[in-house]
Amino acid sequence: MGNPLLLFYARPAQRRRQSGRRQQVCVPTHAPSTDAIFLALRRMRTPLMVLIGILSVSVFGLSFIPGVDEQGHPYRMSVFDAFYFMSYTAMTIGFGEVPHPFTTAQRMWVTASIYGTVIGWAYAIGALLALTQDQAFQEALAMQRFRRKVNAIRESFYIVVGYGQAGRKVCRELDEAGRRAVVIDTRRERIERVAGDEHYADTPALDADASVPGVLGLAGLGHPRLEGVLALTDDDTVNLAVVIAGDLLRPEVPVIARCSSQMIEERMHDFAPAAVINPSDRFGGYLMLALQRPTTYRLVSWLMASTGSALPAKPEHLQRGRWVVCADGAFGHEVQSDFHAAGMQCDLVGPDVGHPDLHGVAGFIAGTDNDTLNLALAEHARRADADIFVAVRQQTETNETLVKALGVDSVFTPTDLVATEALARVITPTFWSFVEHALVQDDEWSAQLFERMRRSCGNFTPERRLITIRRSEAPALTRWLRTRPLTLGELCTDPADRSQQLDVVVLVLTRDGTPTFVPGPDTELQRGDELLLAGRSTALDDLEQVLAYDSLLDYVATGNEVPTSWFWRLLTRRHLTSRR
Q1: Which domain holds residue 536?
Q2: What pLDDT, in 10s, does the model give residues 83-123?
Q3: Which of 57, 379, 501, 504 could bond 535 through an S-S bridge, CB–CB 3.0 to 4.6 Å?
Q4: Overall number of domains in the chain
Q5: If you ran DSSP here, which 8-state letter would residue 358 be given?
Q6: Beta-carbon contacts of residue 407 (< 8 Å; ≥ 6 apart)
Q7: Which residues form the RCK C-terminal domain (predicted)?
Q8: CA-based nearest residue to 356, from 380, 383, 321
Q9: CA distances from 425 to 5, 230, 434, 550 (A)
Q10: What is the CATH number of the domain that holds 502?
Q11: Has this prediction a pTM greater than 0.70?
């Protein structure tokens, strides 16, 4: 019996339905925080008024006190002269320029004014220093810096909500792929970690609540360069709020959300996100795939791994029979449902019942929320039966070394699964369509493709590239297709020796929006075709050279070695004309 849950992976994306009552509104760009300038003016209002008042009283008092000039005549300073004198005196410059010597009364007034301005400056400077240490002011400054950085982005970017294990891995992979990201997280220590991570491009980050639409607006939800939103927090309610905001404010922007609750997941689907990734549900689906079609599971796991990852080993001791899952919460029920849907027996036990009975079982899954308890349960299962298949659920990456040292057969890390699927959908969406296609194929189809890719790409995860046959990406091929045909087999010929094929496999050919998976070598190319290629990086570089240079394309298509310089091309053209 096939696993019906696998159809979940291949179901088409829901069409975005626009209710007739919806109204188009602008994306808000304000958050529940005070503007830094307004906050500074409000906090410094009293100190500035005190300082201005002291200076005003000192100026007008000095202008009213009579003085005497050098000839003994009465003299009064003008308001401007008094302001000039008190300005350089209050600023502690001490310029010393006075129109006439001061009388005793004037000196007494100036002395009192000096002490008064010192007190005023001390009060103002103290208030300013207190303002710079104020948390609200620091948050306002951080939000304004964040806004400027987001507005300055001139390339495509993604909003990543949540910088935990999954969000951090997604940002790192996006950065390595040359994609920009904007990060939102409620925990300040995670935001501070963004600056410490070695990203090639600057990654704007803000500690704020992403469930507030204004925060998403500040992060660039209304930005014309926004490519998508990834809600990867461990709070399903926040992820649901992000899905709702994305669908209502920017329905054309895809949203990928993480979710662990079936109820919240159904509510998310009402707003037609691009994908909802439930790691608990995915684990059961992948486990059933490994049991029923191990080659397909191995192929998909290999292709979804990071570029350069080693070929995953074929799972040993994996067989049908009775399984035992020791877990609490929704994870255990999800896995048990997957086993029952596949027609297999699965017993669910809680972690508080002691050591479960593992007599005659085919596999055991330690899936509690505590990594230490899972390690203890896995070791007990190994001692009970050395041939039993043991899978461990790993919650945090800090225990990765212990799990690896235990040597279990399978490790389920929810954050890694979420990050892997999100990246597969985001970086190359066409690749995810191939994954969905592969998941519903039989093992014979997977075995043929698996061996073909091993011969071409070796034992490491191949690099993937998406190429569109257009003038900007394939100028030579575009010119060639105007007058002559070309097949996939001819295109993938080695430009150094056309008797050899490049170590490249065409996974998907998309024409007019319709994908063709693993097209044959006799498939003729057309302008506008989109090719998803997998292979060694050197082979992909050689193929891009063929797409760009007419001489190389002519050689792989016809075998003619066309001179590359204009002088030799001119001589060759004259020689061919004379022969005719």
Answers
A1: 462-579
A2: 988 888 887 777 667 777 888 888 899 899 989 988 998 99
A3: 504
A4: 4
A5: -
A6: none
A7: 501-549
A8: 380
A9: 19, 11, 11, 34
A10: 3.30.70.1450
A11: yes
